[in-house]
Amino acid sequence: MFSIFKKRNNKPNKKSNKKVNFDKKILRKNNISILVLDERWNSLFKNVEKTEKIIKLERELIELLKEESRLNSEYKDINVKKSKCLKRIVELTPQVFEENEEKARMEMEECEKNIKEINNRFKEIEKEIETIPDKIKDKNLELLESIVFTVYFKIRANQRRIKELEKLIEETKRNLEEYIDEKGRITEDDADIYTYFHDLIGKEELEKLDREYFGD
Fold first, then answer.
1. What are the extents of the domains in the chain?
2. Span 25-70, pLDDT tens digits
3. 3-state DSSP helix/strand/coil percent for the chain, to nearest 5?
């Protein structure tokens, strides 16, 4: 688990609020899931407030994912258009070269022009698509670093509180045992006294005392 952290010197560790630097080479190999697409992501923030930086990185990561999706959709769409243009050129070939129809020739030229534009756009999209996965991965790791710092700072605070609660629980247990012992002693003493007076003065006189001191 801790191999993802970069090695530091051998000086004693001191708790601090300094940001931990991840070894991104190792994280890349670990194939970290896209955080904003992980259903467990939002559960991290039940008791931890998102910082402005986390919100900003989330937005940027989502935009990159949208851009990747948009480019893939565009690639498919223009590929369909290219196929239609190629099919139309095949259909127009007899009219252009055998019948020498001007209208067909103009339409063919328009199709060829569209194919050229589509091919150029293909190159642009392929270039963009090639770089986006790395951008997404880097942004995802940047988001991971930010959330780890925030969440682990919260965990550290929680651990301190847990230790405080453990002490309070132990103290309460001791107090409870003392209260139970005290209650037992008092109950036993009262029972002994009550039995003694019952034998000493009798039931009727004891009931008078009960009514006088404890009510009906």
1. 21-173, 174-214
2. 666 667 788 999 998 888 888 878 888 999 999 999 999 999 999 9
3. 80, 0, 20
